[in-house]
Every structure is written in structure tokens, then in C-alpha cells.
Amino acid sequence: MTKSIATQAKKNLPAILKCAAIVAVTVCFVFPFYISLVYSMKTPSDIGKSSLALPTKLYFGNYLNVIQRNDAFLTGMLNSILTTVPIVLMLTIFCSMAAYVLARCKGRAFNAIYYLFLLGILIPFQCIMFPTYVNLRSIGLMNTLPGYILVRTGFQIGICLLMITDYVKTVPRELEDAARIDGADNFQTFWKIVFPLMKPINVTVMVINAVFAWNDFYVSVTILQSTEKRTLPLAQFIYISEAGVDINTAFAFFTLCMIPILIIYLVAQKYIVNGIMSGAVKG
Predict the structure, then answer these.
(1) CA 135 to chain centre
(2) What is the pLDDT of residues 64-90, one digit of tens each?
(3) 170 within 8 A of 283, measured Cβ to Cβ
(4) What is the pLDDT of residues 108-139, one digit of tens each?
(5) Residue 92 in contact with residue 191, Cβ under 8 Å?
(6) Predicted TM-score (pTM) of this structure
(7) What does the alpha-carbon distance between residue 147 and residue 236 come to, in Å, rounded to a whole number?
(8) What does the pLDDT look like over 4-41, one tens digit per residue?
(9) What b/e string do you get for 108-118 counting C-beta neighbours within 10 Å, with b at 16 or more?
(10) Region class of 55: left (phi > 0), else alpha (psi between -120 and 50), else beta
């Protein structure tokens, strides 16, 4: 009997280790959000009593203080929306069209262009920070939201093309041939046949780009220097310096900044999984 139990335990050991690893990784990712949520719902007196324990009574006054009294939050939220939405839309539209061309056209020139864009992924922003500053200043786009949108969009093109191009290669060419037989030109074939089939990968790329644009710090701190142009990451950075010991309000600030991206991810989760799995299996 004992031998049978030991044998069964050996068989279940990989599954147990797998579950333990999943739980450990989940805790590592969830714990920072838990800390932020708990601290944001406590009064200053509650923090001294039990720092990481759940509050005995939920207190939403910290969130009201951030929304009603903190101009940095409202300005940062508006600027983040005004920059994230154009960045995501531009990358989705332009990279989808470019990926379709690169996936369907054969030749050394197209391969060279494709690999040239991929090389951009290997270059960190710190390496081009000074030239970016000089170029934007020379054309009058320094410290402007359009200048930030332009740079942040260009910096994301490489990873978007990598993901979308591999997915486009999995779309059957027969569908395009049938559309052309029916009289559709290349433009109509792409937008009416191919683009709708790219929905899983486009939603995946949209969420990834939204996260990068929403949480960007290095590009924004280089380009957006005035108070009225700050995005949320910059507003959080300045708020940490100015908030002093008001930890509760600071964590409420951070939690409010995370909520929009969490909502987007939860809504698009199904498409993200489909896009990643399709690219992994077919590509």
C-alpha cells in the first residue's frame, strides 16, 4: 500500500511542481497590485497598525482626493489618452498594411526592408535619446504631444511588424485569389478579406502597444518637459517627490493609473490568446 502511494506521488510530482510554479509566478505578479490596492483603501492611521493586512473598513476618500484635488492626475490622464489612442491606431493601420506587403511580396529588397525594421528592436531608446531631442527641437516638435506620438509610434514599428507579418503568412492565399477573380483590387482585397482575418493578432498588438504607450517613461521624460504636457507616468514620478508621507493618496493615484489598462486587457483577453496561439502554431 505504501509502495503504491509512493508510486502515485512520483507520477503526480510533475503536475504538483507545475501548479506550484504557476502559483509562485501568479503571486509575484499579483502582490504589487495587492499592496497598491490595500494601501489606497486605508486611512493614514490604519497603515501604522497593520501595513499589509486588509483594511477593517474600506476608505475611498483617497481616490476622491486624487480625482477632485490632484491636477497632475487629471492632466496626466487626459494627455495619456490623447497620446495612447493615436499611437495604437496608427500602429494598427500602418503596420497591418506594411506587414501584408512584406508577407506577400518576395524579393531581396522586401527582405532587406523587413530585417532593417527588425534591427530597430535591438536599439534601446537611450542610444538615440540625444539625436531624437535634437531633431525634434529643430522641427519645433519638442515638448509637444504630436512629437511624442511620432517618436513613440516609430519606436514600436519593429515589434509590430515582427508579430503581424508572421501572422499574415498564415492567411490562405486562395481567399485573395478568389477576391481578385471577383474583380477586387489589392486595396479591396486587403481591407475586405485579409484585414478582418487579422483581428486576433491586431487586437493582441493593440493591447501591447497600449501598455507600452500608457506606461512609457523614458520617451515621455525626454520629450514632454512642461507640466501641462505630462503623461501619467511622469505625473506619478513627480507625485512621488511631492507627496511626502501621504502614502495612501499616492497608492490611490497608482491604482487609478492601472485600471484602464487592466480593463482593456480583460476585455481583449480572448483575442490575445487566439492571436498568440495562432502565430505560434501556424507560423
Answers:
(1) 26
(2) 888 888 888 889 999 999 999 999 999
(3) yes
(4) 888 898 998 888 888 888 888 888 989 999 99
(5) no
(6) 0.83
(7) 21
(8) 655 665 667 777 888 888 889 888 888 888 888 888 88
(9) eeeeebbeebe
(10) beta
Q: Confirm if 70 and 250 have CB atoms less than 8 A apart.
A: no
Cell digits of residue 203: 487586437
